[in-house]
Amino acid sequence: MRSGRPVFEALSGHSPGRASRTPPRPRPRRALALLVPLLLILSACASDAPQDSLEPEGPIARTIDNLVNPVFIIAAVVFVLVEFGILYLVLRFRQRKDDDPDELPGQTHGNTKLEIGWTVLPALLLGFVAFATLATLFDIENTKDDGLTVQVTGQQWWWEFTYDTDGDGDYTDEDVLTANDLVIPAGQNVGLEITSRDVIHSFWIPKLNGKKDAVPGSTHPLMINADEPGTYVGQCTEFCGLSHAYMRQRVVALPPDEFDAWLEDQQAEADEPTDEAAAMGAELFASQCSVCHLARGINDDQFEEAGDGTTELVSENAPDLTHFVSRGAFAGATFNLWDDLDGDQIVEADEIGFANGGQLDTANLEAWLRDPPAEKPMDPVTPEEVETGVRGRGMPNLNLSEEQIDQLVAFLATLD
Ligand code: CUA
Question: How far apart are the C-alpha atoms of 91 and 71, rounded to whole Å?
């Protein structure tokens, strides 16, 4: 890449051709060496970071924060004392000009008081840290949910959330499925049962609790609780392939009565669209999308005929789109589905839905339908692979025309 060379020269202060005649000028490199740590330090100073684990917004995350702070202070004091002690000793006992370089300094060995001191003191400190850590672990472990448990399923590269709405104790059949947005009632302990359909992922909402791995074949419990209604973001924190960086998740905490209304709405089937373009879009959806996606009330038969979404994907599952536009984001919460009206980078509950005065981000949706793998790295099946039974990861480019895209967007906009 030819254009890379001037940048290299600017950073390193010399070019390969000139190096043999003039010595390299080290100054730009030194400036860079100073700049990098400075940028790192400054980047830690963001005043409003939505994934800041040091600003808990729920009781469970606060319990962890109450452990982190004293442990950090202890570690910082020990660090400063040890580093300054080393600097002091190095300076105090360095070799001086009039010292004989061949003469060894006075050798000392054994100071019982010191040795007991530097054994007992760290043991006490570590004992305190261990005690506080165990107390925190048990405290979190003994937190009971307030009646709601949601199954969280990671897959390449999005999260599915299942609510046991028929109350049969498992997460299949007629239960509510949603994706990307985990909707919970604020101020309540909500139990999560975390698992995976393909590889290992990790679920993390820094402001609400620590991380928990999503492992295929196992279920791991995690409890979250948000003090206030709001939208709390996180991302998959276990490398899981091509789009690991585009596997995000959002927790939308609603006031408890709004949550109940939301759960009620989610159980309804989608309405047949009445608008002409949307009706064309619904037909197109049933013919083009039924291999992976279900919108209950629209393409149930076609979806079942095509194998319930199991044939094309390694995870054997794609997002249920019955209430697609009730979510704030799509494609692994990578793209906003509604406009971020207040400009805080996060689409909140009051920006979702036409009734709320929300505006659907049709540009994002159109770009996605035009060529999904161009928007987010994926490895979808090719038609040849489908023939041989090979499965893919993610959504293929369906080569839709602009007219078809408009019709699909008109249809998707009705899935509230
Ligand atoms: Cu899923 Cu990283």
Answer: 30
The per-residue DSSP string of 218-235 comes to: --EEEEE--SSSEEEEEE
Query: Nearest-5° angle of CA 293, CA 392, CA 395?
Result: 45
The two tokens of residue 300 are 């149930």
Predicted TM-score (pTM) of the model is 0.83
What is the sign of the dihedral through the CA atoms of 125, 130, 136 and 139?
negative
Task: Write the CA distances from 359 to 229, 284, 350, 365, 413, integer angstroms.
Answer: 21, 24, 11, 12, 10
pLDDT digits (tens, 9 = 90+) for 273-331: 999 999 999 999 999 999 999 999 999 999 999 888 888 899 999 999 999 999 999 99
Q: What is the mean pLDDT of residues 8-29?
A: 49
Q: Is the peptide bond preceding residue 338 cis, with omega within 30 degrees of 0?
A: no
**Tens digits of residue pLDDT in 183-235:** 999 999 999 999 999 999 999 999 999 999 999 999 999 999 999 999 999 99
Q: Which atom of ligand 1 is nearest to the CA of 238?
A: 2
Residue 141's nearest CA partner among 40, 228, 210, 44 is: 210
Q: Distance between CA 117 and CA 406 in Å, rounded?
A: 75
Atom of ligand 1 nearest to the CA of 235: 2
Residue 273 and residue 411 in contact, taking contact as beta carbons nearer than 8 Å: yes
Q: Which two tokens stand for residue 120?
A: 């007992």
Distance CA 186, CA 168 (A): 24
How far is it, in rounded angstroms, from Cα 155 to Cα 63? 30
Please tell me the distance from the alpha carbon of residue 251 to that of residue 258, in angstroms, as a whole number: 15
Residue 98: burial class (beta carbons within 10 Å; 0-12, 13-18, 19+)? exposed
CA distances in angstroms from 261 to 164, 256, 368, listed in the order given: 16, 9, 30
What is the token pair recorded at 402? 């602009």
Q: How far is the CA of 314 from the centre of ligand 1 (A)?
A: 15
Model confidence at 2: pLDDT above 60: no
Q: Is the CB of 244 under 6 A from ligand 1?
A: yes
